[in-house]
Structures are given as C-alpha cells and as structure tokens.
Amino acid sequence: MSLTTKESEVRYEKGDYSIIGSRRPYVDAIDKVTGRTVYVTDISLPGMLHGRALRSPHPHARILNIDTSAAEKLPGVKCVLTGKNVRQKKWGPVTKDEYLLAIDKVNFVGDEVAAVAAVDEETCEEALSLIKVEYEPLPAVLSMYDAMKEGAPQIHGEFPGNVNHHFHIPRGDIETVFKNAYFVHEGQYEASLEYQAYIEPMGGVSVWDNRGNVTIYAGIQTPTWSRNDYAVALDVPVEKVRIVQPPFGGGFGAKLSQQVHPLGALIARHAKQPVRFCLDRVEDFQCGLPRVPMHFKLKTAWDKDGKYLAKKVDILADQGAYASYGAAITLTAMYRIDIMYQVPIVHSEAHLVYTNKVPTGCFRGFGNSQKHFAHESHLDEVAEHLGMEPDALRLRNIAVPGYMNPHGWKANSVEIEACIKTGMARSDFHEKRKKFFSFNKTESKIKKGIGMAPCVHVSGNRSFIKPFEGGAVLLRMNEQGKVFVYCNEPDMGQGIRTTLTMCVADALKLDFDHITVPDPDTDIVPFGLGCFASRGTYMATGAMHMAVNDMKTKLIKIASQILELPEEDLTLENGAVVSLSDPSKKVGYPEIAWKHVCDYPGQHMLGIGHFTPAGVEYPDEKKYNNISGGYAFGCHVAEVEVNTETGQVKVNEMWGIHDVGQPINELALEGQIQGGLAQGYGWALMEHLRYGTDGKIINACFLDYQVPTAADIPKINAELVDSFEWTTGFGAKSIGECCFIGIAPALQNAIYNAIGVRFYELPITAEKILAALREKNGL
After folding, report:
1. pTM (2 decimals)?
2. What domains can be seen in the chain, in order of their start residue?
C-alpha cells in the first residue's frame, strides 16, 4: 500500500489484498459456541467472595438512619458498607455527581444505599434483608418536562433548575432565512427510554494486592480510559488501577465507565478478599444506563426546488438521576447529522436535565439515533409538502467528497449517493410506492407501505480528551515466529479481534494459527480510549497499518543478512521472506525471529504502530473543528404491512446499504448490519422502559420488556457500496452505530406511506396505531 501527499495531507491508497475484504468467521467463534469462552461470571479467584448492593425503593428520599448490626452478625458475612462508613468521592465520566454509596440522599429507585460481601449470593441476599434503612420520602421529578418548572424539587443542589448542561450553537443568520424562505416546516418528535438488552448483565471481579493496587476483571468497552474514572471513585492514584477485559456479552454503548465496577472494588478493599460483584437482570434494568430520552423541536427552511436552506433544533434531554455521558450524548444529538446534508445555516440549542429516574447513558448512536428519528421523519414530511420523492429531496442536498459543514467538519470519502440509489434499486422503492398507492385504495384491512432514511455516523469523535485522539498497536513476534497483537480497542462481540488478525495475516503473509490477540490488560496494552463512537476499526487498523509495516521492515532487514541478498529483492510470502529474483531462496519467520532474539539478547521483535487521523482537532469553545477523520454513511429501507383492524405492523423486508470504506471482514459487516437493523426494529416498534407514578420501572424484566426475536425479524438485505477512506491505512470506516440509526425513521416513514398517519413518539405500537386510525376516521 502506498502513500501520496497532497496539500499537506497523508492520503493512503488501496492495496492488493488477499484476506482483507473476504468473509471470515470470528477467530473466537468456536470457543463461544462450545462454551469454552471465559466470561466475568466464570472467573473464580482463591478466597473469592460475592458482593451485592441494597438499593433504594424510593425515587427521591433523605436517608435518616441505616442499621446494619443484624447483617454484620450473620454467619458468612465478611463486611457491610454504607455511605457513612467508607471513604469515597463523587465521581462520573463527565460530571462528578455520584457516590458509590449514597450518603444523605437517594435520587432514583435503584440507587445504592449499602453493600455486603459474603461467602455466597444467598448469604448476601439474607444480609441485605437484615439491613434497616429509615427514609424520609421527598417530592420527585419523574418527567423531563417538569424538571425545569418553577418550584420543581431540586435533585442536585449545585445544578439549579435541574439543568446539568445548556448548549447553544448558532451558525449564521437563521431568522432572515426563515423570513425569506419559500417553505418553512416545523415539527416535534420524541425518542423513548430504551434498554440495551445485551446478553450479559454488568459485573466484575476485583482483587487488591498488599501494595494497594486493584485489578478489576470487567466486561468494559473502555478499559484504559475508565481507569481514570474508577481511580477518582476509589480515591486512589490511577496507576493503582488495573483493568483486565475478558470477553463479554455485548455492550451497545452501556459498558463504558459504570458504577458496578468501582463499587465492587470498594467492597473488595474492605473485605480484604477478591469479590465478584455482578448485577442480576432486574438490577441491570434498574441502573444500567439506558438510552437518553429526548424531545426535539425542529424547524427547517427550503426553497421551491427542495434546496435545504436552514435548520433549527431545540432539544430537551432526560439525564436521569446522574450525569454519566449525557452532556456528550446531547451535544451529538444537536449536530452530528449536519455532515450528511449541505445546510449552510444551522442553530442548535439543548437542555440536559436531571430527573429522579434511572441514570441514562450511551446506546448505539450516542444521541445521533434520536436525532435521525426526528430529522428523517421531518424530511419525509417536507418532501410531501414540496411534491418531491423522499429520495429526491435527500439527493438534492447530500454531502459530497471534500464538503466542510458549518461546524468545520470535513467529509473525505462520501458514497451516500451510491447508498441511496442502491437502496432504491434493491428495494424497488418507486415501483412499490406506486403499487401500494393503488392497493391501499381497496377495502382490504391490510395497508402496505415502504419508507427510507439515509444515515451517517463518525469513525471516532475527538471530543473527550483535548491532547489525544487516535489508536496504537503493538505487535510482538516471539522466537517461534508467532505474532501477538496488543491493542486497546477491545472486542465486545463486534469482531475486532478477527479484524486485527486479518490485517496481520494479509500484511505479513502469516497463517491465522500463528496470530494471537490476547484480552486487553491495561498493564500491558498501549494507551487507548477503547471502543465507542464507532472508532474501533478505524483507529485500530490505522495503527495496525504502521505496526505491520514496521515489523515487515525488520523482517526483511534480518532476512537480508541471513540470505545475503539486498533488501529490495525481498518480499513476504507464506510466513517467510522470499527472494523476488530467485524464489528458491527464502528464510522462515522462526529463523528470523530466533536471530533477532540472539542478536538482541532475549528481545522479541516488535512492530510499533500509532495513528491519529489527519485534520482532526478538538472542538474550540464554539464547538468548531473537525471531530472525525472518517464519516460512514448508509441508507435504510423498510417495507411494511399494517393491519388496520388490530394495529399490528408486519415488517416484510428491510435493506441496509452502507459506505464503510474498505471492508475488512465482509461476513462481520453483514452481521453488524443485520444486527443493527434488528435492534432498530425493536426501538421503533416495541421497546420502551416504562415508569409508574411511584417512580419504579414497571417492565424491568424480559417477560414485560419486549425485544424482537427471530420470529419477528424479517429478511434483512445487507450490501456495501464501493468506497475507500484514504485517511487511514487500510481504508476502513465504521459500521457499528451507523447500521442502527436509520431504520427507525425508515419504519416510521413506511407506516405513514401505508396508512397516512404519522407518529411523533417512539415506539410505534399497535395501540398507538389503532388510536390514531380511530381519530383519523372520526371514531
């Protein structure tokens, strides 16, 4: 793969790949399906205890007294902790507003009040039942619409009006544009509280050594960066915290910095023994950081030909009881979509408020999903008003390569046009709209519709650490010629372990059996931010490109000495360095690796790689500067049938067409697209964490919280358009979030196409459809 330089930018060019771009099963697939994979709950350390937490039954209450004496006397109990008998500091990834154990006040049902360590889970449960807590219930804020009202109860005294953050980002003279526009459209939309529904609830195993160092075995997306948060929570220097990330059962954004890990470590410190602290499913529903609910007010301006002139958005976001990543999520919702359309003037404002409900956090799309539902529903309304086809309106305004939006973001590789046109062709979109229009005039109770929505997401987001963005890879070849890959963009089921293996195998011409990607251990792997903002593949393969080239150079240099041939005559082939002029002359990697160990006594050969995307800067005080090196695009299409007598929606088929740059593993990408659309189906039509008037979740189990099953999901068609992201070595962009965020508005638009009723709040359930049809028909 070669590099060219143009206008001070590094531009990578597509290489001649043999493995990259193929379809490969995950390298850890056999272990997973045969039950050999070791998850957190499989880890058992000598002397390990179990930990559990006592949780508040009230949404808002003052703690008057806690009596732990009976629990402390129970045989098998090692320690009982409360907020009053342990040293702790407020912590949080953005706003430090939460204690590991509540001290004076609880702020939601599920807030941790006390914790125990005991010999088994049954003893833990009995101990919790013996703890007596006296509460003084306080008035609670159970709706984001009430949070800022005059006289509303204050949840955190340091945040008047329950406002955690207020953002305002104006770009241009928007009122003049609205005044002079041919058409101005307004709408309001609401995205609901949704649980991530990963297979494995949150948990960890913690153990302290006699020097005050803690090791936390945690299924976590951000092992190195979360050390900083957990050090604050535990009031220890960050160098005292080590995180080992074993395989874990999905995250979807929720498993960044989370309360369960440092609380487990706190229990272990006082128990003076290893402690496994894992949530059960009900607890995970209660405090697992579900999606941030948001209300959008959208106002847009257009000319008569469908040119997008201006956009104004006002957002109200529900953070729940504690801040987590809510500020960054809300900021994303304000303007992430602005790189997909060429809109010269945009104004965004948002209020992020506290309520006495479960703290909300990251979920696939990170606020961008909520905005896509609102915006892409809104644009279908605009298209209808202007007499344009939905795809035509989008194609009139989409970004092009080199486009720089009003926030200073620059799109490099852009194949959104190909995504939309391919989606229209594969789904037979226009022909079906004509057929369905005629069919829906009949007396049939079934009405048919088809809808579409394009989508965009970043490949990494430079908004968290001002001096740092990028990734690093360390390759180590041992004396037998086996390569170990150390990287801090961890595998959480998305297949990055396989992606890295494929890159090494292709670049170094090495069999998969000679490549190992160990579980990330923060004492060993290079520094990195982890996997969020769809950064894993883009950052890790960018660093990997440098690392494999570094190792390739070293292999050829030593082989040149062994073969007594010039370096320019040598290439890599089948685990050996081979002469180009005389292929019979070659030397295998084990011999080269052994010579390296002998020449540099005991030192394994290393390949060192690091990557920072060119042209990416931390946003200034006005939130201006390019935040990502690669923007991934897509187009989602959904075909539905609506039963007008029952309100039931049957989704017949869905399409996901994506621009991911150079595909690394097409099988994994296809799986991501299918999984993303399936999960988006649930968000659009089924999933909603519901609260009662007492501040308790009323569907905190899978019996009552519905998620789609294999019986619900229709045929999903996944396709990739030709693309190459020249800012990163192997040319790959993201897929993990972009494959989710377009299907909810596509389904909304399809339902409208079928029955002529639009819904402004998710999920779109049968009950809502029946009520809307009755209202439409005057019943």
Report:
1. 0.96
2. 141-397 (3.30.365.10), 470-611 (3.30.365.10)
